[in-house]
Predict the structure.
Amino acid sequence: MDPHTGGALAWLAQGAASNLLDRLVDRALDGSPPSPAWPHPAGAPAGTVEISVRHHVSVKGRTPVILTLQEDGSRTGTVFSVMLGHTTRIAVPGGRYFGAAMVVDPLRRTRSGPALQGIGWSRLTVAARRTSPFLIPVQRPTTPVLLQLGLRKADGTPLFRI
């Protein structure tokens, strides 16, 4: 894993370690989450990104996915929730981006949090005034990847059960 990917995923992990994860999962399960909005002012003409997540396991029922989108090289971005199998659209300035996805199972919740079913990431170049499809392939998480990302709570307990 290259340093930029590791840093971007660590940013995702920090947000997940807070109660942000619980709020995003609840928002996804409560119905249609609001459309995501890009937090930074657009300096360049906007393009549209259509984000989809492909999971290796067929999942029954409504399964929340926590997505992040960051400009390439940035330490911040936007985090939003969608349901697995749905495509979401977001307008962003043209440029290079990094996206990450965590598929969680809120029904298999433990004291340490929800079960993590998958994690994945991908890069994308968005052309101004065009629609760009963006597929994030998600694989089953492994303990070494979770440890490398620092997916632990402040007290050192695991953030997810895998």
Summary: Residues 3-17 form the longest helix (15 residues). The helical segments are 3-17, 20-29, 143-149. Strands lie at 46-55, 64-71, 78-83, 88-93, 95-110, 113-126, 131-138.
